[in-house]
Write a structure and sequence with these properties.
Elements: E1 4-10, E2 13-19, H1 25-32, E3 51-54, E4 57-60, E5 73-75, H2 87-94, H3 104-117, H4 123-129, H5 141-159
Parallel strand pairs: 1-5
Antiparallel strand pairs: 1-2, 3-4, 3-5
Bound molecules: FE2/S2 (inorganic) cluster (FES) (2 copies).
The site of one FE2/S2 (inorganic) cluster has 11 residues, from loops.
């Protein structure tokens, strides 16, 4: 089968690979790029453990061909921490939003997309937003609490004044 070169940006880094047309994005990320934080739970688009962001949109990488992601910006769980844990990662830790952790990377990526769409979601909106991501351990209560905690912190960070010096007052 002829391979095809794809060029992507993954977690801010330019990457390229020769892929077979049938290769799934999740296998490109895990097997070619070594980004094994993106999990495979079902391979049939039901569980959401393979969720990543593709050009800012939530995508189940087990149902997307790698060639379809050519030219796209991909963000995976490995791209979330920036020196410190991302507020979502910290909140899942603080609120005990995980047990075995298998669903967690996909859950955090989905929550990241959700909070990008709606920075102040209600509990019902959070539950609806993560309804495509299955967790067999937690019962979801602490996951919802974690997303609420992160939402509050991200809103506070967005509202905080920046360190940029103020414009000098015009002379009168
Ligand atoms: Fe992709 Fe389950 S592995 S949705
Ligand atoms: Fe185990 Fe969610 S923490 S599947």
């Amino acid at each position: 089968m002829t391979s095809q070169k794809v060029h992507l940006t993954v977690n801010g880094e330019a990457r390229e690979a020769d892929v077979e047309p049938r290769l799934l994005l999740v296998h490109l990320l895990r097997d070619v790029f070594g980004l094994t934080g993106t999990h495979i739970g079902c391979d049939t688009s039901h569980c959401g453990s393979c969720t990543v962001l593709v050009d800012g949109e939530s995508a189940k990488s087990c149902t997307m061909l790698a060639v379809s992601a050519d030219g796209c910006e991909i963000k995976t769980i490995e791209g979330m921490a920036d020196g410190a844990l991302h507020p979502l990662q910290q909140a899942f830790w603080d609120q005990h939003g995980l047990q075995c952790g298998f669903c967690t990377p996909g859950m955090i990526m989905q929550a990241s997309w959700l909070l990008g769409q709606n920075p102040d979601p209600s509990e019902a909106e959070i539950r609806e937003g993560i309804s495509g991501n299955l967790c067999r351990c937690t019962g979801y209560v602490n996951i919802v609490k974690a997303i609420q905690q992160a939402a509050g912190e991200l809103r506070a960070a967005a509202a905080a004044p920046t360190d940029a010096p103020a414009e000098p007052a015009a002379a009168s």
